[in-house]
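re: the backbone from monday

yeah here it is again, tokenized this time
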């Protein structure tokens, strides 16, 4: 069963975001040293903001192996996180999965997650899960600046994402600030560079950048020569290249590296709700998707996201995560509420 929720009005989103100031919850779904997979049953409800095809692949394999039925409610990161916060302890959700980590932090700060099991912590290296262990990374995507090869020489590419605020890039680059993808990148910038530098950069973006509704539209504009470059996530380029390349044939990816805010690797999150009536099966699902079998499923389908599990290689064509020189960012510290405030003040939302 799949249910798509309508978008919440701005007032509701603002009210829910305010709840992020609540204290973090705590708890444990299984005794230390044990695994939630040591026997569970029942039926699960997942609130899913990850790509539908990816989550469905996980669900199909999990159900085939365990016999546990899984129901899905689909929406965006913000829709689902606000839905959970509004429902609170009465939420029917057992598991929450997102595309980006700020929505996970929002739910964590409302005290609604239970700590992930030792098995999950063993599956996922600590750089791909929050220090709190109240949820975990389940996949990853890298920030990338795609540029038109006919318009920009490699030597003229920006060394840092912060350079896009300079006059020489005015009117030459684009992004999709309305989506959770871009807001996650700004969250990392806020954590790494501070509020003033981030506010200044967003102000320059409002004045200098062209705004697009989606990452794919931004890349398509680069390909068509409408703009010289755009800030997106890597898998839009990788997936199009793996198909016809019709929206990326004139495009090349530029990775900022050097622990720049523009080298931020955003983790997709997964967490078990404290209010779940079936925490054992919920944690079993989380253990499955972060384990070797679940992570290897990321190498199939059309999503081209990075696996974050130990000893699971990315699919062919992706730059290995350890070569991206991503900045160290604790996902538990990403402040989505402040990002929305700063972007709203800049006129980008």
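seq for it, each position gets an aa:
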């Amino acid at each position: 069963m799949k249910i798509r929720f309508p978008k919440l009005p701005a007032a509701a989103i603002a009210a829910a975001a305010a709840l992020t100031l609540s204290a973090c919850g705590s708890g444990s779904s299984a005794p230390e040293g044990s695994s939630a997979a040591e026997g569970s049953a029942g039926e699960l409800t997942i609130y899913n903001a990850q790509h539908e095809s990816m989550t469905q692949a996980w669900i199909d394999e999990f159900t085939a192996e365990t016999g546990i039925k899984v129901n899905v409610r689909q929406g965006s990161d913000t829709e689902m996180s606000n839905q959970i916060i509004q429902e609170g302890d009465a939420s029917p959700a057992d598991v929450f999965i997102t595309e980006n980590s700020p929505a996970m932090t929002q739910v964590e700060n409302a005290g609604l997650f239970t700590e992930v099991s030792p098995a999950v912590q063993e599956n996922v290296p600590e750089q791909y899960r929050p220090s709190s262990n109240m949820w975990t990374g389940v996949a990853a995507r890298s920030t990338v600046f795609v540029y038109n090869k006919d318009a920009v020489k490699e030597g003229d590419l920006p060394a840092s994402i912060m350079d896009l605020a300079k006059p020489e890039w005015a009117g030459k680059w684009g992004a999709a600030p309305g989506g959770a993808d871009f807001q996650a990148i700004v969250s990392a910038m806020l954590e790494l560079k501070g509020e003033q530098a981030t506010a200044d950069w967003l102000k320059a973006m409002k004045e200098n950048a062209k705004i697009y509704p989606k990452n794919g539209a931004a890349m398509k504009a680069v390909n068509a020569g409408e703009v010289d470059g755009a800030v997106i996530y890597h898998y839009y380029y990788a997936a199009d290249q793996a198909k016809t390349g019709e929206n990326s044939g004139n495009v090349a990816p530029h990775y900022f590296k050097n622990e720049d805010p523009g080298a931020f690797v955003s983790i997709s999150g997964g967490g078990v709700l404290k209010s779940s009536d079936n925490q054992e099966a919920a944690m079993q699902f989380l253990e499955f998707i972060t384990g070797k079998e679940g992570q290897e499923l990321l190498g199939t389908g059309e999503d081209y996201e990075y696996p974050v599990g130990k000893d699971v290689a990315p699919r062919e064509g992706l730059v290995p995560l350890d070569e991206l020189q991503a900045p160290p960012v604790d996902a538990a510290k990403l402040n989505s509420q402040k990002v929305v405030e700063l972007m709203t003040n800049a006129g980008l939302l």
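The chain has a mean pLDDT of 88. The first strand starts at residue 2 and ends at 4.
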